[in-house]
Amino acid sequence: MNYICKMKxxxxxxxxGLIIAAVAVIAATCNLIRLYEYEKAKxxxxxxxxxxxxxxLEITSRMESNExxxxxxxxxxxxxxxxxxxxxxxxxxxxxxxxQTSLASLLRFGLEFSEGKYNTNFRVLDSIFMAELNRHGLxxxxxxxxxxxxxxxxxxxxxxxxxxxxxxxRTIRYExxxxxxxxxxxxxxxxxxxxxxxxxxxxxxxxxxxxxxxKRLRTLDQMKDDFTHNMTHELKTPVAVAYSAADSMLRYxxxxxxxxxxxxxxxxxxxxxxxxGMIENILSMSMERFNSIHLNVESVKLKPFIEEISGLIELKxxxxxxxxxxxxxxxxxxxxxxxLGNMISNLLDNAVKYSGDSVxxxxxxxxxxxxxxxxxxxxxxxxxxxxxxxxxxxxxGDRYEVGGYGLGLYYVKQITKLHGWTxxxxxxLGEGTIFKIRLKEDENG
Length: 445
Fold this sequence. Notes:
The chain is of the alpha+beta class.
């Protein structure tokens, strides 16, 4: 019970850790998105500053050739050069954006007053705008300043901001477009993105690993429960039979009826012997026990040996069983006869239990292998890789009710390994199963 509580506690801790880590990753992702939006807004501010500078420089380029405005232009230009900061904004006041926009409005007003009209040269404006962007470390593939409500053909993929000036009490609005500058934005975030990406990779790996452990623990719990259930059922039957026989002798003991007493005692002995064998098999399943087993290897003629085992299987089957043996009469293997018999009995017993109303089994052998083929219900591809695992039982339909506790094929696997052999299985549902034991050539007779 303590072990079960610990396992459940471990799973709860793992799940809680995964949930907390997932929440932390989601929160970090949201913060990273907000940081990206903040950096994008800062980049658009730089774009807007470049557009404002380009607007002023485009105006001044035309004012240089205007005699009426040249004197004012010289004074304004000197002021701009003295007041301009490294980022291109007007310094000396916290309202520099307002001063810069107002300066552009005054220049427009002066130009319009001197010329009687105002027309922006957008070709020159775009050229100056691109140069300003490059000067600020931005290198978009496309940049343009267009009249309001005029959009480029590729507007959907462009970044956009707005530029406004107010000459002569009239508001002039421009749409400012640049090709996306994600590279510039992300370059400012590498110090956060790289560690975050590493955290995500490590978290994903640990999550998958922990989920695999949890799944495996759940499978082990299920196998343990199945084993306990099956073992209890298997042990209860011989105990109940022996108990009934002993109770009958005690309640209705008749000293004169020797045949009855002997029959009941034989039943008790058989059930106790069967019970002892099951307990021994359970104890034998530990790897330490297997490693300490000493094989009594001898030459075993395989055909008569298997014929004897097959006869016993046919007698206790309870349904028609046909076992065909295709083995040369003089073929022999070097093996421990006790464990070899148990191994073959397990395979034949499974073939009988997991079959229909009639059973057909073929056993063949040569210098390389021993093959047992049946016409049973077969094993699914999902279950086939696990049939030699300790306590594993195929749970498909009513066949799960067949007696056993998932140790037979595990025992077979361990005995073949002790002999230096290998075993493999091939099967499909509804098509039967083939067990192939590959033998060492130097152990064949």
